[in-house]
């Protein structure tokens, strides 16, 4: 007979591990373009029926972000109507179809290997589809983990989602590197990269996407959604397996008290909670980190410090290491100290990159180290902690819609930063990173003055917190 007096750590770990695969796909899909974009540019530049300009290439490199905005915007509706689990399954389907379509966009309708305007449109539609999956996963994966995790472990477990995102980026950096290295001695390596290499990079995502789509079928729905949909017995069963029977009944009571009070309007707790959630998302992007992640090989190449793909992989290792710092300190130090410290560290790194460009004679290593400091500071602060706060800061009755709005703001901000980085960086790297430095300092001030500390609080505690601040 199973002992239900204590929760099963193995059960909790298993379902969280499957959920964070969505985060891995998030990182994989958004970073795959960093290795593929040059081959992709050469391929579509060979088209005879249209001119593939730098503007069109910039759009192609960031078209997935359009899907991210769409996916995050509809995530609240889908999570509320279909549940967290089924919504993640749909996201997995989007990931898989996007990876397969990006690998072979000519499917049925076009001649393979012949670049045309219509093929370019089809390719971007596949990338948008993948972006929809990313947008859904970026909102729903942290929400899912936060709703199944015990209060004392929530910050750490949601932070593992960010670890998975960064690990997914590192994996795809490494995969891209191996794909390019596989033909480094081929005299026709450039032609191979322009025709085949970029396809393999996109197609490699089919493996983790297929695995996630299958495994998500085996996780339970979250207790909070089960209560909201009238399945309290099932919710109690899940809570018992995670927390133990002695605690599960009390948690179920707390959930019922906050869920069945009334159907809350979005602004039922005032404008400030929505504002803070959205601004957390905006600052996470306006500090400029994704401009570095998406265009890392080009940035390192411009600094003249050896193989840019090797340095990009090294940056991925640094990112993984400092994400672990957040995971193992978030429940001890709290959310706000990590965010403020990380903001100041990023400001220092961004300032170093700006000075490396503005001051003649500084060795390239100054810029490389500054980029590493900048990236590492983000990884133990705004990277994971922003997702932790977005997943836990909103009251139960508005969480789905509020998270969707906050994450949509994040992807809109991401698109703005990613689409403006190349022209700004081409005009003046010093100005670009000086601007990011200023944003980092502003982000630190915002957190200090407005963001509440949520360490140790249950999701139900957030209802009382925001009622008292109205």
Average pLDDT level: 82
By secondary-structure content and strand pairing, the structural class works out as mainly alpha
Query: pLDDT under 50 segments (min length 5)?
Result: none
How large, in whole angstroms, is the Cα Rg?
22 Å
SSE topology string: HHHHHHHHHHHHHHHHHHHHH
Biggest beta sheet attributes: none
Strand content: under 5%
**How many strands in all?**
0
The helix fraction, in percent, is over 70%
Count of alpha/pi helices: 21
Q: How far is the N terminus from the C terminus?
A: 49 Å
Q: Give the overall silhouette.
A: globular
Structure notes:
By secondary structure, the protein is mainly alpha-helical. 78% of the residues lie in helices and 0% in strands. It has 21 helices and no strands. The chain has helices at 9-45, 54-62, 64-81, 84-103, 117-148, 154-181, 189-203, 206-215, 223-228, 232-243, 245-259, 271-286, 289-294, 296-302, 308-333, 335-358, 364-379, 382-392, 399-427, 429-450, 461-469. Helix 15 packs parallel to helix 17 (364-379). 54% of the residues are buried. The mean pLDDT is 82.
């Amino acid at each position: 007979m199973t002992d239900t007096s204590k929760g099963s750590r193995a059960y909790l770990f298993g379902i969280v591990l499957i959920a964070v695969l969505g985060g891995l796909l998030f990182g994989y899909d958004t970073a795959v373009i960093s290795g593929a974009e040059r081959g992709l540019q050469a391929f579509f530049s060979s088209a005879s029926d249209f001119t593939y300009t730098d503007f069109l290439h910039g759009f192609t490199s960031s078209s997935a972000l359009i899907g991210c905005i769409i996916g995050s915007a509809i995530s609240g509706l889908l999570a509320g109507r279909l549940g967290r689990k089924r919504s993640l399954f749909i996201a997995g389907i989007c990931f898989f179809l996007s990876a397969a379509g990006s690998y072979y966009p000519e499917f049925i309708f076009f001649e393979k290997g012949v670049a045309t305007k219509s093929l370019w449109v089809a390719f971007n539609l596949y990338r948008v589809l993948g972006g929809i999956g990313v947008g859904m996963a970026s909102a729903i994966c942290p929400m899912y983990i936060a709703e199944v995790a015990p209060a004392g472990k929530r910050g750490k477990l949601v932070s593992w989602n960010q670890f998975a995102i960064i690990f997914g980026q590192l994996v795809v950096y490494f995969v891209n590197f191996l794909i390019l290295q596989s033909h480094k001695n081929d005299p026709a390596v450039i032609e191979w990269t322009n025709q085949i290499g970029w396809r393999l990079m996109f197609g490699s995502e089919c493996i983790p996407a297929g695995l996630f789509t299958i495994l998500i079928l085996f996780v339970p729905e979250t207790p909070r959604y089960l209560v909201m949909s009238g399945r309290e017995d099932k919710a109690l069963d899940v809570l018992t397996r995670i927390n133990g029977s002695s605690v599960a009944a009390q948690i179920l009571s707390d959930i019922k008290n906050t869920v069945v009070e009334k159907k809350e309007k979005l602004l039922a707790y005032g404008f400030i909670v929505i504002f803070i959630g959205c601004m957390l998302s905006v600052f996470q992007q306006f500090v400029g980190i994704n401009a570095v992640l998406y265009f890392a090989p080009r940035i390192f190449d411009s600094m003249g410090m050896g193989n840019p793909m090797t340095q990009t992989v090294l940056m991925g290792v640094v990112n993984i290491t400092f994400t672990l710092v957040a995971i193992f300190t978030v429940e001890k130090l709290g959310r706000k100290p990590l965010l403020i410290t990380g903001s100041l560290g990023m400001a220092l790194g961004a300032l170093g990159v700006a000075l490396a460009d503005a001051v003649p004679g500084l060795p390239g290593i100054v810029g490389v180290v500054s980029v590493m400091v900048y990236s590492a500071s983000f990884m133990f602060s705004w990277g994971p902690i922003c997702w932790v706060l977005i997943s836990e800061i909103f009251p139960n009755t508005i969480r789905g819609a509020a998270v969707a709005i906050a994450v949509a703001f994040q992807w809109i901000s991401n698109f703005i930063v990613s689409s403006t980085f190349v022209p700004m960086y081409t005009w003046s790297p010093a100005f670009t990173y000086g601007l990011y430095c200023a944003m980092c300092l502003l982000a630190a001030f915002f957190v200090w003055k407005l963001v509440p500390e949520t360490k140790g609080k249950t999701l139900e505690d957030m209802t009382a917190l925001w009622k008292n601040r109205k």
